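By way of example, we now present a protein record of this kind:
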Amino acid sequence: MRFNQKRNLPRFILQWIVISFLLFLGARAFLQKDYVPDFEAYCPFGGVQALSSYFLNNSLACTMTTAQIAMGIMLIIGIILFSKLFCAFICPIGTISEWLGNLGDKFKVSIKISRSADLLLRSLKYILLFVTFYYTLDSNELFCKKFDPYYAVASGFSLDVVWYFALISISLVVIGSIIFRLFWCKYICPLGAISNILKFTWFFAAVVLLYALIRLTGTQFSYVWPLAVIAIGGYLLEIFGGKLNFFPVAKITRNESSCTNCQLCSRKCPQVIDVARMKVVTDVDCNLCGECLEVCPEKDTLQINRRSGLKWLPVIATIVKSSGFHPIRAHRNQMLWQFHCLRQQNERGQRSAGCCYLCHHPQGQSIV
């Protein structure tokens, strides 16, 4: 039998569109000196942090608008319904990590991490998630900008970036991805941590609802405790194989009667999930990228929810979600809530220098 090894072209095209768009923004900023690209405006992780800051502090984190909150909400809904589509199709760090991993495989320098090391390393992204949200909610500043490799490179190591944090992150992305497949995504990325937690929807919803009810009673209860419960609980659910029973709604399914056990799906999976041994892929690392669907040589053996017509669902859902970003950005002035940075609400009533990139560029140039 001649196995089908064709490329997952729709995903490849979407990944290149995102990379090309970011390169265009960078080139435009270099050529057009009065243009200030807002790279962080397209990161839904910042939106999730801004949403948390709004509900907890009744204020938006600095540089955040309702555009980012809307993207954060879309990220949450997308994960619950369709899995981690942002990670699979859009995230530039995820794309570059995967390509570097392929390079490591090609030159045979990649190393397989042992099971015990894998379980231990997975705790790092939950620790970083806790630290990131703690300092963001405490200061109303996006703490992730201090170490985010995407933001560091895109902004040219702006003043918000702690250069040695960023260099460590970039090294982990580049070197880590070549030697250990998707090292950053699996073990370091806080967005990967919150995405996995959202897959355990019942757990996340229960903790948030309980905390909200406690707050409604007027009881003083620090956000640190539910944040710690979410981080620790998410890690334990991930390593001890918490089952993704209902959420996300869309899952890869395998027809055992037509499967020839060729193992192509398992070998092709970027996340190294053993798809060939599962009737339903409930692995928390699955992001519905569709690589296994594309490579399977047997018709209707690998499907989404056992329906052949849903093969294009991840691509369509990603395009629909992404197309919603433009009108949100285009009308952000009309939909901007009139909240201010906490640093702007100081005793003197003066705006802190460089506090809000959106409303007060350090050089005094408004970009709204």
